[in-house]
C-alpha cells in the first residue's frame, strides 16, 4: 500500500482504478482514459495532484539561494506570484528533477517538485540551503487540484467568493496568488488553460465534488500523461533524469547561462556541453505507419545512428501515435522505429503536438 | 463484474474460444481482458494462412496504456483475421465476444482436444482469484 492523498476515499467512491505512482496510490482513470482526455481538450477536467511535493523556502537570502540552486534564473521573477519552470541539476549537470518555483515575496518562494523524487530533492535542497540560512518546509498539509481545459478557469472561479473569483480570473499565464487559504495559479501540465490550486487538505473533497457538480470531469493520471505528451512536456524519470542533461532533453530553454556571473550548481559542465555541442537531442516523433510508439523502443536514423523513445503513446486528439525520442544531434526529418522487430516510418516534428485544443501537426 | 458467457471456452491468459459449425474456432479476448487494458487503439491480427502453435503470440492488442500479446489457445492454421479491427479497435471494448473477435483458426488434428481450455465456471474462478 502506498501513500494516500486526502482524496483517496473519494477516488474509490468514484470508481477510479488505482495504481502506484512514485509510491502513491493514485487514480489512473475513472471511466475512459480517452474520454477524460477529450473532456480536458474540449471542456474541463480535474486532476488530483496532491502527491506532488510543495516546499516553502523562507529567509532573507532565499533569492540568492535559488540563484545558486536551480538552472533557470529567478532573476526573471520580479512580479509577485510569477512562476518559473526550471531543472534542479547535480554537480555534473545531470537533471535531479524539474520543478516550478513561485515568487511570493523577497523572503518566501515556493517550489513544487515531483512526488517520486521527493526524498532526494528535500535532502538536496536542505543540504544547500543551510549556507544561505534558508528554512525548508514541506507543505504536506496542502492538497493540490489541477483544473484544466478551455472552461476550467470559469468553472473553478465559481468555487471562490466573488472578490477572489475576479482576482483569480485576472491572473496572467504562469502567475499565482493567495486567495484566503488557497493558492491559485494559472499553470498546468496539459497544454490547456486552467488553474492549479493548492488548498488545505480538508477543502479538497468538497472542492472536487463542487467541480463535478459544475460539469468538470474527474480525470486520472492516464489522461494526464497523454495530455502532457501532446503538449510536448517532459516527464521526469522518462524524458530526463540524472544520467541526462538539459541540452539533450529539450530543456535548453530552461537553462539561463546569462548573467554569466551567476554560479548555479551544474553550470561548468553545461558550459562545456554548449561549447562542444550536445551529441544528442530530444525530438518529437509522429508515427506515419500504423502502431503505437512506446518508451524504450529503438529509433534508427539511417546513415546517422540510433536513438531511443523516452515517452510514447497514442494521441487521442490527433488519433495518431506520437513520442519524444532522444536521437543523435544530426538527425533530420525522417527516422524509423523498431516496433516488435518491424521498422516503421516516423517523422521528426517540433513539440508541442497540440496546444489549446488544436493540432499543431501539418 | 466481468461477463463470462456460458457457451465459450477460455484460457488462463484471458482469450476466449468459440467452436463454429464448420469445426473451426473463433478467438478473442475476454471482457475482463478488455476492461483491464482500457481503451483499445491498435490491433494487429494474423493473416489468413499463417500456421500457429498453441501458446504462440499471434496477435497484438494495444490500449492507450500498454501493448499486450494475444496467444493462440490451440495449434492450427489461421483462416481469417478480423479486418474490421484495423479501423475500429474499440470494437473489442464494446463487443469483446461478438464483432470484436480477433481471428478464426482451423485446428490441427486433435488440437482442440489437446488444448488446455477452461470451462466458464473455471475461468470465473480464475477471475475471482485474481480479484477481478
Q: What value does the average pLDDT of chain A take?
A: 97
Number of domains of chain B: 1
Shape of chain B: globular
Structural class by SSE content of chain B: alpha+beta
Sheet bearing the most strands of chain A, described? Answer: 6 strands, mixed
Provide the spatial order of strands within the biggest beta sheet of chain A.
10-11-12-9-3-13
Query: Spans of chain A of 5+ residues with little confidence (pLDDT < 50)?
Result: none
Given the C-alpha coordinates, what overall shape of chain A results? Answer: globular
Rg on CA atoms of chain A, Å: 20 Å
What's the β-strand tally of chain A?
21
Most extensive interface: pair and counts? A-B, 17 and 13 residues
Q: Uncertain regions of chain B: pLDDT < 50 for 5+ in a row?
A: none
Describe it.
- The complex is a heterodimer of chains A (362) and B (132).
- Chain A is an alpha+beta fold and 362 residues long.
- In chain A, 23% of the residues lie in helices and 34% in strands.
- In chain A, the strands form five sheets. Chain A has a six-stranded mixed sheet, sandwiched between helices. In chain A, strands 14-17-16-15-18-19 form a six-stranded antiparallel beta barrel. A five-stranded antiparallel sheet of chain A has the order 5-6-7-4-8, with helices on one face.
- In chain A, a hairpin with a 2-residue loop joins strand 1 and strand 2 (24-29).
- In chain A, helix 2 packs across helix 8 (221-230).
- The mean pLDDT of chain A is 97.
- Chain B is an alpha+beta fold.
- Chain B has one domain: OB fold (Dihydrolipoamide Acetyltransferase, E2P) (Beta Barrel), CATH 2.40.50.100.
- Chain B is 22% helix and 32% strand.
- Chain B has helices at residues 31-37, 84-87, 91-94, 111-114, 120-129; strands spanning 9-10, 15-19, 25-29, 40-44, 51-52, 57-63, 67-71, 76-81, 103-107.
- In chain B, strand 1 and strand 2 (15-19) form a beta hairpin.
- The model of chain B has no long low-confidence stretch (mean pLDDT 95).
